[in-house]
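Researcher: Here's the sequence for the chain we discussed earlier.
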Amino acid sequence: MLYHTHFLTPTQRSVLKYRPSKPYRHPTLDKRLTRHRILSEARTLVKCRREGVNVPGVLALDAEGSGGHGGWMMMEWIEGRTVRETLQVGGKKWMADQEGSEVWQQSVKKLMGQIGRAVGRLHEVGVVHGDLTTSNMMLQPTRDGERVTNGEPTGPNGHGDQDMGVRLDGEVVLIDFGLAAQSLQDEDKAVDLYVLERAFGSTHPEAEGGFQEVLRVYGESYRGAKVVLKRLEDVRMRGRKRSMIG
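Model: Thanks. This is the structure I predict for it:
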């Protein structure tokens, strides 16, 4: 459960991720699972942040669930829209005319490169996301080369300038690390890419062709990408067999 709130001061916007207790689980087991999941996500975010991966910062947490009501973690608020929303809203507007379509395709290619670089950096530091979709990527607006943070006014609608909903400039920030894990296995990283590829095919069919740009930049930004991309072919084959068998 996510809540938009503030941290320490009214001007510092934040996100509260709350994990309520599960009444159907034994209290001891429930407390252990809640503690493990909150600490695991927090440690992963801190590691990514320290290694230069664009992720929300961790502000505070209570993994023990004081009072037996579940645990929580407070994180930095990321301005902007999800990549999914930006592509869906912007695509409809820009594809309405030929000139806009050409500009849009160029912008999409640039965005695909940013996604590939972000995922490559994530894998470089030994972390797999576990749920890589465009819903778990934010496109954070920038001003003079700096990321807009802490609820700074960014435009009439709070999403950057008035065209933020249909523009693809900004920085890609990866969010929602609830299923993330620290792993050096090429198979795990290949599955990460496969999940993202499938997400593009189902959610953004108009931009599916641009996924090759994601893989190209991923290959340039991550030294171990060659082996992972080779393993991705195997993962794809297994995925096709499952689809055929049902």
